[in-house]
# Entry
Amino acid sequence: MPSQSATRPLRRTLTLSRPALLLSFILTVSGCASSLQTPKSPQSQVVVDASLMATPSYQTDLLNFLSDKPAKPTTK
# Structure
């Protein structure tokens, strides 16, 4: 069994660390609770002309090009 002089620093450390641990736990919980109430971002009011928008034809053309089989089989 450890002597009383050896247990005093340990007891003091535990006594001082309990409020610190409790405070850190409370701050963590309150920080998580406050982050749940995020403000909504405003919707964008930017209007883009339809002629400036890219058409998805490039992807379609590429898929058709890659999936097409050659008309004549190539010979070595």
